[in-house]
Structures
1.
Amino acid sequence: MGAGFSGIGAAIRLLQSGEDDFVILERAGRLGGTWRDNVYPGCRCDVPSHLYSYSFALNPDWQHTYADQSEIWEYLRATAERFGVLPHVRWSHRVLDAAWDDALGWAVTTDRGVFGCQYLISATGSLAEPSTPLIPGASCFAGTVMHSARWNTSHSFDGQRVALIGTGASSVQIVPSIQPTVEHLSVFQRTPGWVLPHPVRPIRDWERRLFRLFPPAQRLIRALTYWQREVVLVSAFTKYDGLRTALERQVRRHLATQVPDSELRAKLAPDYQLGCKRALPSNDFYPALTKPNVELVTEPIARIEPEGILTTDGELHLLDVIVFATGFHVSDNPIGEHVVGRDGHRLSEAFSGDLPNYLGTTFPHFPNFFMLTGPNTGTGHTSQIFMIECQLNYVLDALDALGDGPDAVAEVLPSVAEAFTEDLQRKIEKTVWASGCASWYQNQHGRNVAMWPDYTIVYRRRTRRFDPDDYVIGRRHEETAAAVSMA
Ligand code: N01
């Protein structure tokens, strides 16, 4: 399910292993997932380009050290084409639900028919469903409304009075991109982010030539980038407070240098630990906020009127456009309600904390089911594709271990999943993500269901091999169901 980075990666790895009896069900008419959907101005990855690719398909042609949306989308498209993935994609097939049957396996219902399969891989992504807060009066607004992840590319912002709600990773890229041409920009901030200096620069022609002629040079840069982030950032976020506070001092200097006005600076200063929410690299967000046509609004929003946004101090901000840069349904992704395992268990339980998981990939009551970018497989410092590839190693090894038979069934032992999940939650309590801020890493109960609380190299080690002893393995129907209930 899904033709974004993880779904395309899964397809390539399956093809490389000699398996071509699969389809990818994709709701849209184009691949790319979040990199297809996020076309807002200024959209750029905050992970270095040399690290942000599949390990088996490095891209010597990146134009920037941090690639923009169109480059990444084109990389993904070209890679899918090069590895022969496209014939396997069923475009415009929206998955409505998926249910396990002990006799039949998985039945995946789409709006264009039902697909039966022995194994189901969920690759629907965690940043897929835009979240728009319910603000009283929103439906009466007379102007244009859009979400950052559903950008209306035909709308011209020139000369318009615009509100941008939210100051997260999307917002810090949109603000400087639209500020020069709008009449007025009101940026509604609830919590200030940690904004870091951005080391982006164009990659020179000679560098690209070098990477093309001598691929080990790019591999070396990739390895150095990976290890530098792993050693410094994971250590700062999960182990060593002293390292984190040293980084915080550096980042505060960025704010002090870029925002001379002390009143504005005070509004922008975070009062929680660096890394607790995703850090935001940008050289032009703060300068854009200092322009005469921009206002940083920190008064809470009371309601939306036909003419604009009313804040709790009674001020009505007159507007032509409201942009919600308010993030995604991560722990409450609606697809979770529609994937149903044994005994009526729903995948959403893995995010509410009611169902343990193993390696963020498999779940008790969900035989022959693998979730990519599942619970606690997120990272705040490195490439998500690294984590996806770790999961793919595990899935491919599992499929290999289960053999070619049409009726093999594997379900993780509840005791294994419980021990893993409890240990992971204990570790998270000692990280920066449990230091008191609110973020999309947490579910509605405050439980962190997004982040991997350790070095990613540890995740890589743990996912290298599928261990059959962690699973009940049998043949489809009664045998496995009976074994699982005994276990
Ligand atoms: O969303 P967010 P995003 N009233 O959830 C505010 C990836 N990404 O789309 O902090 C007022 O981070 C909310 O305020 P608060 C990346 O993983 C990567 O920006 O909750 N405000 C916050 O300021 C990232 O983390 C890249 O108090 C409300 C903002 O909206 C993830 O996507 C680029 C509100 C939401 O920020 C999501 O980023 C873009 C309300 N009711 C995205 N509700 C790069 O690689 C929410 N907010 C650079």
2.
Amino acid sequence: MKRVILLGPPGAGKGTQAQALQARWGVPQISTGDMLRQAVRDGTALGRRAQGYMNAGEYVPDDVILDMMQERLARPDAARGFVLDGFPRTLAQAEGLDRILERLGVALDAVVDLEVPEEELVRRLSGRLVCPECEAIYQRDTQPPKTPGRCDRCGAELVEREDDRPEAIRRRLEVYRSEAEPLQRRYREQGLLHAVNGMGPGDSTLREIERSVDAETAR
Ligand code: AP5
């Protein structure tokens, strides 16, 4: 059973690593970004509220995110553990998460902070392709699909994300810089934070994450 948060800037590889950990550990990847994009596609009230924030590269308000996560973490599959991808992002969300976990009677095992320099983040995001059907993630130069423009897993047509336009990338990085430090400090003080180098090939990052989490859960 593992309960882990993946922190890191836009493009650090949170989604890529969370999908790999889901397969390795048999616990759900819970991505607030994927949940919000699904709500936008479904045209729900949540999606309509979130869309403007997301396209502009701003954070969706904390109360919206916390309501969504309270419902998601109470579902039966999350009782096996989870990898949280992109949540929490603010101190208020971290405090809200603590309250949700306390009510569920469970605790976090580790918080992994993926570190990647900014010029590499911009390079990665500028060439990202995603599958709108199954959320698989590709990169034109470093992780291309086998058939150009088609998802390896489900065959759907790959798309660029609306928020991977240069001005939205710039704003997402600014917002991340302004919110990340207090969150990192909080988890460092709780002895849960593990910095992991996200610059190497994806499988070496995956091994480093697993080593950090195994060391924490063995204590
Ligand atoms: P979200 O979808 O979570 O976006 P993000 O945090 O900006 O992160 P990304 O998905 O862009 O990057 P990632 O770290 O997952 O990297 P990936 O694996 O894709 O959120 C979107 C929006 O929703 C937010 O801006 C906000 O509006 C809203 N939102 C979501 N959660 C919220 C919250 N909690 N509170 C408020 N608002 C919220 O990889 C990136 C690229 O790099 C890919 O092309 C990939 O193939 C490539 N890559 C990955 N690893 C490597 C590697 N090792 N080497 C080379 N390339 C690699």
